[in-house]
From TrEMBL:
Bias (Basic and acidic residues): 12-30, 143-154, 166-180, 949-959
Keyword check for DNA-binding: yes
Species of provenance: Monilinia vaccinii-corymbosi
InterPro entries according to UniProt: DUF7801, MukB/SMC, Uds1
Full protein name: Up-regulated during septation protein 1 domain-containing protein
Keyword Coiled coil: yes
C-alpha cells in the first residue's frame, strides 16, 4: 500500500508510483508547484505522525528483508524466472553511467535527503507553533459576534462586545502571530515539496543505472549436470543462484522516509485541544485558559527534553561505547506524575550530556591531531626521500612543506607527493622513450657502445672458430700419422689466421674480415682447379670411363636433388623469417599497447583507481600468457634442435667411417687417390669454414639453424661421395638408399617444425585478440594515443623504424628472389652439359649459402635488439607498479583514517539544535557506510565477471587447440 503525495488532491497526480513509471520511460517533468496552502494541508497527516514510515510487510522465511507483495511466491521458479526475464527486457535500454556520474548522483541524493530531513523537522516544529497560535486566536470571539449597543434586547451580548473591544490589541497581536506562523509553515511545506521533487530525478537515474548494469552483466542461472537445473527449486538470478531469498541485497537504495498515506484530511477544529469548548466556555477568564495552555506547554517541553536526552545519550554511546551515559526515567512509564516536576532533572541531564559530549569531542580532536601529526611526519619523510631521488634530474624541485601538525599540513604533504609522483612518471616516460629510440640511435652511430659490443662478440666468435680449426687440424694430423700417411702442408693457413690472443681493435677486425673473404675466394679457385684436374684425370683413365660416366650421372642426379632440397630450404627459411617478423611486429604492438595503457592509467583520476588496477592486472596476465607461450615454443624448438643435432652427429660418425672404408678400397690408381685425398683436405677446410660461419650466427632462430645444419650435413655427404669415386656401384647404391632415408627423415622434421611454427602463430593471433579485447579497439587506442603527444612521438619513431626494417626485408626478399632465378638459370644451363658446369653450379651454391647466412645475421641483430627492449620495458614496468602500489597503500590508509575519524567530528556548531545535529551525523554515517558497501559489492562483482571471462577464454583456447589437432594449421603459409 503506497502513500499519496501532497499534490494528489490538487489535481497534479505527483505521487511516487506515477513518477517512477514515467521516469522509467526516460521523460523529465516540470510539474508546476501547487498552492502552498494545498501542499501544507497534504503534509498535515505526516506532521501529526512525525513523518513516520509505515511498517512494511515481512517475509516469514526471512524477517530481515521485506517483500513487496503478499501475492508473490518466492519459491515458485516459473514465477520468479518470468519476473527476472521481464526485468531484464525492461532494463535493456536503460542508461549505464560512469563511476564519476554515479558518485555525483549519490552525493546529490545524500545532500537532498539531508535537506529534506531538516525541512521536515522545521516543518514539524513550526506546525506546533502554528497550532498553538491558532488555539490562542480561538480564545477571542470573532468580529461577527459583536452586537449593536443600541439594541436593548441584546444588552448582555453588547457588554461582551465592549469587553472584546477592550482586548482588541491582544486580538490583533494574536492574529498577526497566527498569520506569520501560517505563512512560515506554508513556505516550509513548499520548500519540502520542491526538495522531494528534485530528489526524484537522481534516484530514478541511479535505479535505471543499477537495473541497466545488472541486465548487462546477467549471466543466467548456473546449471549442474548432476542436478535438475537448480538446487531446491530455485532458478538463477542476475547475481547468484541463491539470491532469490535476498533479491534486494545487491545495492541498497536510498531509504525513502516519506509518509505516503493520504495527506488530504480536513482539519477539524473540534479535534484540537480547545475544540470541546463551546460559546459559553469561550467566555471564561483568559487567565484560566492561559494556565491550562502553560501546563500543556510544560508537559510538551518535558516530553521533548526527554526525547532530546535519549537521542543525545545514544550519540554519546556511539561516540564512546565505554562511557556510562545511563539515564533513568521519572517513573515506569517514562513520564512524570505532574507537569513540571521532572523539568529541572531533564535540564540538568541535558547540561551534563552536553558537557560529556564536549569532552568526547575534545578527546577525539586530540587523537585526530596526534594522528595528523604522525601522518604528516611519515609523508614528509617520504617526500624527502623522493626529492632526494629526483634531485639529480630535477634540481628546481622545491623542498617538502614543513611539519605543522594540522590537517592542512597533511593536505600540503599529499599535494607535494602527487607533484613528485608526476615528476617520477615523467622520468619513467623519458626513460621509456630513450629505450624505444635507442636502436635507431645505435644504428646511426657507427662508433656507439652497442655496435662495439656486437663487434667484440663477433671477434670472440671468430677467435673461437679459429681455435677450433687449429684443434681439428691437429687431430687430422694425428689421424694421418696413425694411418701412415703424410700430413698436408697447411702452415701457411695457420700462420695467416694470426695470433689467437690478439686483442680486439677495429683495424684487426677489418683485417680479419678481409682475410676471411680472401680465404673464401682462394678456396673457390682451388676447388675449380681440382675439378679441372679430376676431369682431366677421368679423361686419361680410359679403362673405367663407362663406369665413371655412370657414377657421374648418379652424382649429377644427387646434385639435382640437393639443389631442389636447397631451394625448398631457402623458401622455408624465407617463410619462417616472415613469420618471425610478423611475430616480432605483434610483440612490438603489444608492447606499444601496454605502454599506452600504462600512461593512460598514470593520468587517471582517483575515482578510477580500481578500474586502472583491473586493466593493469589484465595486461600483466596477457603479457605473462604470451611470454609463457613464447617460452614454451622456444623450449620445444630447442628440444627439436637438440634431437636434430644428435642425429647429425650420428650421421657425421657414419660419414667418417664411410670415408675410411672408401680410402682403404681405392687401390686402382695411386695418383688419382692422392689427388682425391688433397681434394678431401680442401673440402675439410671448406667444412671448417662453414662451421665457423655457423658459429658466428649461433644466436639465430632455432628452427632456421636446425634446417641449415641439416643441409650442411647433406652437402658434406655429397662432398664425401665425390671423394669416393673409386668405389663400386653396389656401395654407391647402398649409400644412395641410406641418404634417401635420411632425406625423408629431414623432410619429416622440416614439416614438424613448420607445424610448430604454425601453432605458435595461432597462439600469437589468439593472444593479440585477447590484448585487443583487454585494451579496446584500434580506434580507442588511437584516440588515447592522440591525447598523449609523448606516446604519439614514440609511436612515430617506432613506425619509421618499422618502415626501415620493412624496406630492408623487402630488399632481402628481392635479393632472394633474384638468387632463386640465378639458381634456376644454373639448373637450366647444367642440364645439357652436366659434366662441364659442375664446378660453376657448386660455386653458385656456395655464394647463395653465404648470402643466406648474411641475411640470417641481419635478422639476429634485430632479434637481439628486440630482446633488450623487452628487458628494459619489464624493468620500467616493475618500477612503475612498485610506485603505484605504494601510492595506493597510502591512499587506502588515508581513506581508512577518514572513515574512522568521521564519527569523531563535531556534528555541527552551537547554532544547531542537539536533535538536528545528532540526526545529521547519523544520516551522514549511514549514507557513508552504505556507499562503502556498494563500492565493495561493485568491486567484487567486477572481479567475478573478469574471472569468468578469463575462464571462458581459456576454455575456448583449449577447444581451438583440440580442434586443430596434430595436423598442419590452416594459418601456415603456402610454399610457392
Amino acid at each position: 500500500m503506497r502513500k499519496s503525495r501532497p499534490s494528489q488532491d490538487s489535481g497534479y497526480h505527483y505521487d511516487d508510483g506515477s513518477v517512477k513509471e514515467r521516469g522509467a520511460a526516460g521523460r523529465r517533468y516540470d510539474v508546476q508547484a501547487p498552492d502552498a496552502s494545498t501542499v501544507l494541508q497534504g503534509y498535515r497527516p505526516d506532521i501529526s505522525k512525525g513523518f513516520e514510515e509505515p511498517q512494511p510487510l515481512y517475509n516469514p522465511g526471512n524477517a530481515a528483508h521485506p517483500q513487496s507483495s503478499m501475492l508473490l511466491n518466492i519459491n515458485d521458479p516459473i514465477q520468479v524466472h518470468l519476473l527476472v526475464e521481464t526485468a531484464l527486457w525492461d532494463a535493456k535500454e536503460y542508461e549505464i553511467l560512469s563511476p564519476e556520474e554515479v558518485e555525483d548522483l549519490k552525493k546529490q541524493c545524500q545532500s537532498l535527503t539531508q535537506r529534506i530531513q531538516t525541512a521536515r523537522q522545521n516543518l514539524a516544529v513550526h506546525s506546533k507553533y502554528r497550532d498553538a497560535t491558532l488555539s490562542m486566536s480561538k480564545l477571542y470571539p470573532d468580529k461577527k459576534r459583536s452586537v449593536d449597543l443600541n439594541d436593548s434586547s441584546k444588552q448582555k451580548r453588547g457588554n461582551l462586545g465592549n469587553r472584546k473591544r477592550g482586548n482588541s490589541d491582544e486580538v490583533r497581536e494574536a492574529e498577526l502571530e497566527r498569520a506569520a506562523s501560517e505563512k512560515r509553515c506554508e513556505d516550509l511545506a513548499a520548500e519540502l515539496w520542491s526538495l522531494e521533487k528534485r530528489l526524484i530525478e537522481p534516484e530514478h537515474r541511479l535505479l535505471k543505472h543499477t537495473a541497466g548494469i545488472l541486465q548487462m552483466t546477467h549471466k543466467g542461472p548456473k546449471t549442474n549436470l548432476g542436478e535438475d537445473g537448480h538446487r531446491g527449486g530455485i532458478p538463477g538470478s542476475p547475481e547468484s543462484m541463491y539470491t532469490y531469498h535476498n533479491a534486494r541485497n545487491s545495492l541498497e537504495v536510498i531509504e525513502d522516509e516519506f509518509d505516503e498515506r493520504s495527506f488530504y484530511r480536513q482539519l477539524d477544529p473540534l479535534n484540537s485541544p480547545f475544540g470541546a469548548f463551546g460559546v459559553n466556555q469561550a467566555l471564561e477568564a483568559p487567565s484560566t485558559e492561559k494556565s491550562k495552555e502553560h501546563m500543556q506547554l510544560i508537559s510538551t517541553t518535558e516530553q521533548r527534553l526527554e526525547d532530546l536526552n535519549s537521542a543525545l545519550r545514544e550519540v554519546i554511546i556511539k561516540v564512546n561505547p565505554d562511557h556510562d551515559a545511563s539515564h533513568t526515567p521519572t517513573n515506569a512509564e517514562g513520564k512524570s506524575a505532574q507537569p513540571g516536576e521532572s523539568l529541572q532533572d531533564h535540564l540538568d541531564h541535558l547540561q551534563q550530556s552536553i558537557a560529556t559530549l564536549d569532552l568526547e569531542h575534545g578527546a577525539a580532536k586530540r587523537k585526530t591531531d596526534e594522528f595528523n601529526a604522525a601522518t604528516e611526519g611519515t609523508l614528509e619523510e617520504l617526500n624527502r626521500r623522493i626529492k632526494g631521488l629526483l634531485s639529480p634530474t630535477h634540481p628546481e624541485l622545491p623542498e617538502p612543506p614543513a611539519i605543522t601538525g594540522h590537517q592542512t599540513g597533511v593536505r600540503e604533504q599529499l599535494h607535494y607527493f602527487q607533484d613528485t609522483i608526476a615528476s617520477v612518471e615523467e622520468e619513467l616516460t623519458k626513460a621509456a622513450a630513450i629505450a624505444a629510440n635507442s636502436l635507431v640511435k645505435k644504428s646511426k652511430s657507427g662508433e656507439s657502445d652497442q655496435m662495439e659490443a656486437v663487434l667484440m662478440g663477433l671477434w670472440d666468435i671468430i677467435q673461437s672458430g679459429e681455435e677450433e680449426i687449429r684443434k681439428q687440424k691437429q687431430e687430422r694430423k694425428q689421424h694421418r700419422a696413425a694411418n701412415g700417411r703424410g700430413a698436408p702442408d697447411d702452415s701457411d693457413t695457420a700462420s695467416e689466421m694470426g695470433d689467437p690472443n690478439e686483442p680486439f681493435t677495429l683495424q684487426s677486425f677489418s683485417a680479419k674480415v678481409q682475410w676471411l673473404y680472401s680465404s673464401a675466394t682462394k678456396l673457390k679457385e682451388h676447388k675449380k682447379v681440382l675439378q679441372r684436374q679430376i676431369k682431366q684425370q677421368r679423361e686419361l683413365n680410359n679403362k673405367s670411363d663407362a663406369q665413371k660416366d655412370a657414377e657421374l650421372v648418379i652424382k649429377q642426379e644427387e646434385l639435382d636433388k640437393t639443389t631442389d632440397l636447397l631451394e625448398r630450404t631457402e623458401r622455408n627459411a624465407i617463410d619462417l623469417q616472415e613469420q618471425l617478423s610478423n611475430i616480432m611486429a605483434e610483440l612490438t604492438k603489444a608492447r606499444e599497447a601496454g605502454k599506452m595503457v600504462t600512461e593512460a592509467q598514470a593520468k587517471g583520476s582517483v575515482s578510477l583507481q580500481e578500474v586502472q588496477e583491473q586493466l593493469s592486472q589484465a595486461r600483466r596476465l596477457h603479457e605473462e600468457e604470451l611470454t609463457n607461450s613464447h617460452r614454451e615454443a622456444s623450449e620445444r624448438i630447442s628440444s627439436l634442435m637438440d634431437a636434430h643435432r644428435q642425429s647429425q652427429e650420428k650421421l657425421e660418425v657414419a660419414t667418417r667411417d664411410a670415408q675410411e672404408r672408401i680410402a682403404g678400397l681405392a687401390t686402382t690408381n695411386r695418383n688419382l687417390e692422392d689427388q682425391l685425398a688433397s681434394a678431401n683436405s680442401k673440402i675439410g677446410e671448406l667444412e671448417l669454414q662453414l662451421q665457423e660461419l655457423k658459429d658466428n650466427h649461433g644466436i639465430s632462430s632455432a628452427d632456421v639453424t636446425s634446417k641449415l645444419s641439416g643441409h650442411e650435413a647433406r652437402i658434406a655427404e655429397l662432398s664425401t661421395a665425390v671423394a669416393a669415386a673409386a668405389t663400386t656401384r653396389v656401395a654407391h647404391e647402398n649409400s644412395l638408399r641410406e641418404k634417401d632415408r635420411l632425406l625423408a627423415e629431414k623432410d619429416k622434421e622440416v614439416e614438424e617444425i613448420s607445424m610448430k611454427v604454425a601453432e605458435l602463430q595461432t597462439e600469437v593471433v589468439i593472444a593479440r585478440a585477447e590484448l585487443d579485447g583487454a585494451y579496446g579497439s584500434r580506434a580507442q587506442r588511437a584516440a588515447e594515443v592522440a591525447s598523449n603527444p609523448a606516446i604519439q612521438r614514440e609511436i612515430d619513431a617506432m613506425t619509421n623504424k618499422n618502415k626501415a626494417l620493412q624496406e630492408q626485408m623487402d630488399a632481402l626478399h628481392h635479393k632472394n628472389f633474384m638468387l632463386q632465378g640465378e639458381i634456376a638459370e644454373l639448373q637450366a644451363a647444367r642440364s645439357p652439359a652436366p659434366a662441364a658446369n659442375n664446378a660453376e653450379v657448386e660455386a653458385k651454391l656456395k655464394e647463395l649459402k653465404k648470402e643466406l647466412e648474411e641475411t640470417i645475421g641481419e635478422y639476429e641483430v634485430m632479434t637481439k635488439a628486440s630482446i633488450e627492449w623487452e628487458k628494459e620495458r619489464e624493468k620500467l614496468e616493475g618500477e612503475i607498479d612498485k610506485l603505484r602500489d605504494e601510492r595506493e597503500n597510502l591512499e587506502s590508509q588515508l581513506s581508512d583514517e577518514r572513515v574512522r575519524m568521521l564519527g569523531m567530528k563535531s556534528p555541527g556548531d552551537g547554532s544547531m539544535t542537539p536533535g538536528l545535529a545528532s540526526t545529521s551525523m547519523t544520516v551522514l554515517r549511514n549514507e557513508f557506510k552504505k556507499m562503502m558497501r556498494d563500492t565493495r559489492a561493485e568491486g567484487l562483482r567486477a572481479l567475478r565477471a573478469e574471472q569468468t571471462e578469463r575462464r571462458r577464454l581459456e576454455d575456448e583456447l583449449r577447444a581451438m587447440k583440440k580442434v586443430q589437432g596434430p595436423g598442419r594449421s590452416t594459418l601456415s603459409p603456402k610454399v610457392s
